[in-house]
Structures are given as structure tokens and as C-alpha cells.
Amino acid sequence: MRLLLSFAVSICLIISISLAGCGNDHTPTGSISEYAISASGSAPNAISSGPDGNLWYTDGKGYIGKITTGGVITEYAVPVVGSSPYNITSGPDGNLWFTDIGGYIGKITTSGVITMYVASFVGDITSGPDGNLWFTKLGGFIGKITTSGVITMYTIPTLGGGQMALQPVLTAISGLQMNLAILEKLPLQE
Q1: Exposed, middle or buried by CB within 10 Å (0-12, 13-18, 19+), for 183?
Q2: What separation, in Å, do the N-terminal and C-terminal C-alpha atoms of the chain show?
Q3: What pLDDT is attached to residue 190?
Q4: Which is nearest to 97 in space by CA: 75, 68, 127?
Q5: CA atoms within 13 A on the CB side of 2
């Protein structure tokens, strides 16, 4: 009985602490500013801070956008027909790098010059601590692209469960906080 009472008091204390943060006198004040993207039928996907102090985003309708913290938007058309930019990250070279579902990895300078590299079925991308960019690719691959555009692919073993068994591994690796120590422990094959 004493254990049950102690448990009930603990639960009530947790609930009280949780609810205390939800009261009107503890609600943070502030406002949300929304900015219209001018691209017709725009489809923003991902956003990242850039080395220039601006925010950069991908637009699945074929654009890379830049927005200042004051709300000024500049859009850059990706120079590939059927382009669909997906994810974006700041690179170690002072540029922004993005994946494109149309089968590319792109690099955009902070002045808007875009270079495209062929890399089919790419997903997420992140900057690695080794000075390269790392990305996921459907089919059980992790890829590395150097800042000069050299791509190396690594095969992830299927872990005995076929393609579906890879999903937790790809999900863990494809996040913005990619940890290369994970890759070192996997039996990757170049």
C-alpha cells in the first residue's frame, strides 16, 4: 500500500510539474511571421542556415531560395529540366549543398551560382566532420561527395532482412546530426 501511495504521489507531482508549464502565466509571448514564396505553385521542403547569415530552402518546384532574417526572398532556378530539390545543408566550403529527387546533388554559392552533379535516387544530405558531404541513396547506400564533386558510394549490408531492414539504419544515418562513428562500425563496402 505504501509503495502504491508513493507511486501515486510521484505521478501527481509529474503531472503538476507538466501542467505548470502549460498555464497562461507561463506561456511564452511572441509572434510568427510568414513570408509568401513567389514561385508559382511552390513546394518548400527543407531549410538550413547559410554561411552568409541567411536562411536557404529547397523548393520542390525547381528552385533554391534564400530568405534574409528581414524577410527578403531571392529565388534561384535550378538549371535542370524537371528538377525537384529536396534537402539542403551548409557545406564546409562556404557553399550550400542540396539533393534533387530528379537525380542530382547540387551546390549553390551564396551569390546564386549553381553546379549540378549526377547522383540518382538521393535523399538527405549533411556536412560531415571530415570536410565532405554525406548523403543517403535509395537501395541501401550511403554516399560521400567531396567539395570538388567526387562521389563515392558505400553499400550498407541488408542485415539479413532485405531492403526493409535498412530503413532504421538509413533513418538513423540521414539525420542532420550525422555521426560518422556509426559509419565506421558498419561493414561498408566501397
Answers
A1: middle
A2: 61
A3: 56
A4: 127
A5: 0
Q: What is the mean pLDDT of each run of 10 residues along the chain (190 residues)?
A: 36 36 61 78 90 96 94 94 94 97 95 95 93 90 95 78 44 44 51
- Integer Cα distance of 40 and 17 in angstroms: 47
Query: What would the grid cell of residue 173 be?
Result: 544515418
DSSP-H helix ranges across the chain: 2-20, 167-173, 180-185
Closest alpha carbon to 88 in 79, 80, 97: 97
Beta bridge partners of 135: 125, 143
Residue range 41-185, CATH number: 2.130.10.10
CA 166 distance to own-chain centroid: 19
**What are the Cα distances from residue 28, in Å, to 15, 25, 33, 122, 136?**
20, 8, 16, 39, 38
pLDDT of residue 50: 97
